[in-house]
Amino acid sequence: MKKSLVWFRRDLRLHDHVALAQATKNSDAVFGIFIFDPAILDKLEDKTDQRVQFIHDSLIEMEETLNSHESSLEIRFGAPKEEILDFCKKNNITDVFVNKDYEPQAKKRDEEVSKILAKENITLHSHIDSVVFEASSTLKDDGTPYKVFTPYMRKWMSVLNQYGGEVALHSPNLKKMAKRNNPRSITKIDWMKEIGFNKSPPHFKAGTIAAKKQLKEFSNKISDYGKMRDFPAADGTSNTSVYIRHGNISVRDMVRAGKDGDTDGHHKWLAEVVWREFYQCILDQFPYVTKGSFKPQYDEIKWRGTNAEFEAWKKGETGFPIVDSAMRCLKATGTMPNRLRMVVASFLCKTLLIDWRKGEAWFAAKLLDFDLAANNGGWQWSASSGVDAQPYFRIFNPYSQSEKFDKDGVFIRTWCPELSNIEGKYIHAPHTMTPMDQQLHGCIIGEDYPAPIVDYSKKRMEALEMYKEAVKAP
Ligand SMILES: Cc1cc2nc3c(=O)[nH]c(=O)nc-3n(C[C@H](O)[C@H](O)[C@H](O)COP(=O)(O)OP(=O)(O)OC[C@H]3O[C@@H](n4cnc5c(N)ncnc54)[C@H](O)[C@@H]3O)c2cc1C
Question: Is the CB of residue 120 less than 8 Å from the CB of residue 114?
Fold first, then answer.
């Protein structure tokens, strides 16, 4: 009787799952395991981190489905290389199935686990699941990876067309899940307490049911995506990033939704899903981006911003309403619309003149959908140091971005209630109100809401000079 183990990591679902489908196809009995890894958890300073609860709740849903097949999910807390080996030995497992993870630490971990298992004649099978195509399938004709998105996307589509223009469905046979009643399952123990975290209901409901509902609801308005996506108060995007990050839905579920119509919205949305994949490939092929700039000359920049300015940015107290509302939204919900991620990132690097790595780290600590590849890609794009990034002399003006994308100040008023009585264009630059207007609108600048901590126009010139010094040529 061939017994296998599926090790779940960032793929917390039981449908359209390559490793699970392969395991159930090639084995007589399949066990599932999830390991809370102290090497990851110890780095999380906030012991009420919503992401841990999100994972916990996703596991509960998986466990309930497995219970209906008289099976269960093994939960462990410890070093994966020890826990996996221990489980395999105790249950006579000969094969372990995983979906590949392209983050440098994860690659190192999997190599170690593979070697340890091999010594015991246990095989680790790694499958492609979190992306549709790995970097090796989308190389240029000269065999090197694409560094510009548009030709990458073209190549990606041409490879998809070779497969008939559709992504495969990898359905596991859950009847093959091993019959077991597991006393240490996610439902039988207070695992949050066990791993040292407090309960903290996440802003998004976890699990595949919620994820599919979210994607389905978005499908009804996907045709407007291109028109609506940049307006933070309009809720015109899918809000699926947290689900794809934790694997409650598959990337193929996303691609199917994008290919389910022929409108501009469908095309634009699919392109965003491919951006995600592009950054995964960049991280896989150029892992040094986690430490420094993709374009090394950008590491020569002499950043000039102060700690006090960085703290004001984090707290949402810069005196620039569009920036402050976005940063407060991030802190309260663990999310931020893409347009505003670009605005606050540009503001940090090119208005406050603060190193993008500091912003990247703050986002990594706060974002519910934090994904190393997408976050690093987004920050390096904004700082102009990354692949296919905007040129350094393109600097987002926080006032005009605000006027264009939050014209009536709906988003600003939601997160900066002290500005809620301000009318007209003053909502974008409240410091320009006369003292009498400040009285009239119940918002005294410097008391109720900060004056801008820097002068945007002056800082713009300084940023150009700072970048030019390091980069020499545009
Ligand atoms: C500075 C910065 C940091 C970012 N950090 C992250 C991060 O940690 N995790 C993350 O998932 N996204 C990140 N993004 C990308 C983007 O902001 C989010 O994916 C998007 O806001 C998620 O909302 P949504 O699901 O409604 O996206 P939609 O607009 O509905 O897009 C659909 C999906 O495509 C993918 N996607 C969309 N835009 C991008 C993009 N620019 N880069 C990569 N993938 C994209 C996401 O998986 C998203 O769920 C970052 C962007 C910037 C500028």
Answer: no
